[in-house]
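Exercise: predict the fold of this chain.
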Amino acid sequence: MGVYYDEITIQTNGETDMVNLTDDIQSTISKSKLKEGIACIFVGGSTGTVTTIEYEPGLIKDLPRALEKIAPKGIHYDHHETWHDDNGHSHVRASIMGPSLTVPIRKGRVLHGTWQQIVFVELDTGPRTRKIAVQIVGE
């Protein structure tokens, strides 16, 4: 059993920007030389998320609209009073979606559906540099 760790650094354009990580994850798996196992993809921070989506223009618009209904901007969040900022909705959205994703590895390839990509979604109100941790366990 082996363990491999790497980080992917990305720059986001701000709130609801989505970055397709699928090729970067596959590259990391290839570098690991592990053929069978699992990869945990994790973002440190409380205003970003890693998930899967069909990375196409319609859903890139649909997900932010759905998030606006779930945790809208422009309403009262006690977080704003604590830190005097404007990203309470970002924290709530990230808490609901979660900071990580675990995917299987088979024959040296990340397993995902034909139309399914691994993405990072920026939920904070401005552009950020993010480090995405990828830890692979396998053989």
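Check your answer against the key: Helices lie at 22-32, 57-70, 78-83, 88-97.
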